[in-house]
Amino acid sequence: MSIPNYPQLALPPCQLQIREGRGGFSVYDECRMLWVAFTPEEWVRQHVLHYLLYQKSYPRLLIHVEERVMVNGQPQRADIVVYGRNTKPFLLIECKAAHIAIGEDTIWQVATYNSVLKAAYFAVTNGMGIGVFQTTDTGVSYWGTDFPEYPKRAMEAIE
Questions:
Q1: Are 94 and 107 in contact, with CB atoms under 8 Å apart?
Q2: Pairing of strands 139-144, 130-136
Q3: Is 21 helix (H, G, I), strand (E, B) or coil?
Q4: Residue 23, CB half-sphere, CA atoms under 13 Å: how many?
Q5: What global pTM score does this model have?
């Protein structure tokens, strides 16, 4: 069996630890500190995590992966939630496999999760593009195509 050949993403390349087992391939998640199934969505999620950690200098301890979110009484899982100091969500990210188009449905999904989490920013990505939205007291607006810088004061709080 050969390692799945997933597409090159628009995110910087990263070195992933991949192993083969009885159930197929798995990849090591540095944030969760465990091996997880190596799926097309996980390919994107791991690239996003490496980008946040090594390019944007987000603090590893404040990144939660597959965070449980209760939406209308139903448990859901948010792909990535980055917390700021005071334990408030700073950024929520929904990852999709590269072949999944980003559209209204995917934006609605992450916006629904954010209606519960109330992160300052939320984003959706398929690794080919990123759409980031900012939430304020007056509503939600499109913010850009790259994740925001992590606040300096929050970094100082954990050093």
A1: no
A2: antiparallel
A3: strand
A4: 7
A5: 0.91
